[in-house]
Write a structure and sequence with these properties.
15 helices, 2 domains, eight-stranded mixed sheet
């Protein structure tokens, strides 16, 4: 029986490595290209309690070397930390408009309600592309040009990038590359771009979406209550008939610094939502993650004979396929051996997410708790 478990574990990783969209390669990534046509772009930036980041983030948008018309609409979502004052000081800059957010109506998440108000601004009404980006993202000067070039060249309705997350603290070095690795596993980027597959995903830090696509899906009102709003938007745009692309970015970087508790809460906020708030899906997740990540090192350390060999081979395989993501974040390769322990952290956060759901505190973020039923 123990040998059979080892065989199942190894077979699972053989499938993931060879037949699961090459997720482990930690690619693709946009090149530095200039668009052939300088379409008008409007960035919509929702901001709630972002005083520590807003000047640097919006400043990077104002510094874009894009050759076309480019406007920024910043929506202050009822901040209480001075974000509004900093935004007002920035408003003296050309191409920046500030919107004072209205109270959150029932049925909306805060971020989507802020985006809705930004999209309603007159400046956003005639943009050919809408750039949805968070208030903690810093953009390199040529970033917008590369996004528009990709959309125009490949005739895409939506281009999204996984921003390069901050990875300096011990908690970030231990957990952030694995967070990206698990996201790639859940949404193989090659599959999201494949029009023959129904899988769709986006990363909320950087989403460039065409005005025509937004009009076709009726804006963001149809996903108003979604906690995982980026992937919900990608699904809407891709179906029916839309074309999307998701990749990594070296030109968009998150400047938010996380500690252990913040990464735990970030995961616990939406992990159970990702499972459809289903107890059966949670059990399946626990079983699958247990076989893929926990059982192999257990067999390698405690097993005997063939079972130990299978466990060791599987553990080595998972550590090896983690290397491209670790390399992207300039992390030591030895974190690959710690992947089983890191997976246990994320499994714990997933269980916490389910607990929060059933106790009525699911989806809590920045002082708000959204209904979970």
């Amino acid at each position: 029986m123990i040998v059979l478990i080892g065989i199942i574990c190894l077979a699972g990783w053989v499938y993931l490595i060879g037949f699961h969209g090459r997720f482990w390669r930690s690619s693709p990534e946009l090149g530095a290209e200039a668009p052939g046509r300088t379409a008008k772009v409007v960035a919509v930036v929702p901001a709630r309690n972002e005083a520590a980041h807003i000047a640097r983030s919006v400043g990077s948008l104002l510094s874009q070397d894009y050759g076309g018309e480019f406007w920024i609409v910043l929506v202050d979502d009822n901040s209480t930390d001075g974000t509004a004052a900093i935004a007002t000081a920035l408003a003296a800059a050309p191409r920046l408009e500030i919107v004072a957010g209205q109270p959150l109506p029932q049925g909306w998440t805060g971020k989507l309600w802020a985006i809705q108000q930004g999209l309603a601004h007159p400046r956003a009404q005639d943009g050919e592309y809408i750039l949805l980006t968070d208030a903690d993202i810093e953009h390199a000067p040529g970033h917008l040009s590369s996004l528009v070039a990709k959309a125009e060249h490949d005739h895409l309705d939506l281009v999204s990038e996984m921003a390069h997350l901050h990875c300096g603290t011990l908690a970030e070095r231990a957990l952030i590359p694995a967070f990206v690795f698990f996201f790639q596993m859940l949404y193989p980027f090659a599959w999201t771009a494949d029009p023959r597959r129904g899988l769709a995903a986006a990363a909320g830090g950087t989403i460039l979406v065409s005005r025509m696509a937004m009009e076709r899906i009726g804006g963001v009102s149809r996903i108003r209550g979604e906690l995982i709003d980026d992937c919900a938007l990608a699904r809407m745009v891709k179906s029916p008939g839309g074309r999307i692309w998701l990749g990594h970015s070296s030109r968009a970087r998150s400047i938010r610094v996380y500690n252990w508790g913040e990464i735990w809460n970030m995961t616990a906020r939406t992990a159970y939502v990702q499972l459809g708030n289903s107890a059966f899906a949670l059990l399946g997740c626990l079983a699958g993650m247990g076989l893929l990540f926990v059982a192999p090192p257990a067999l390698a350390i405690c097993g005997h004979g063939l079972a130990r060999l299978l466990g060791a081979l599987t553990w080595a395989a998972m550590a090896l396929v983690f290397q491209p993501t670790l390399h992207r974040y300039r992390s030591t390769p030895f974190w690959g051996l710690a992947l089983p322990l890191i997976a246990l952290f994320y499994l714990g956060a997933t269980l916490a997410s389910a607990f929060r759901h059933y106790t009525g505190s699911g989806g809590g973020w920045k002082g708000r708790v959204y209904p979970t039923s």
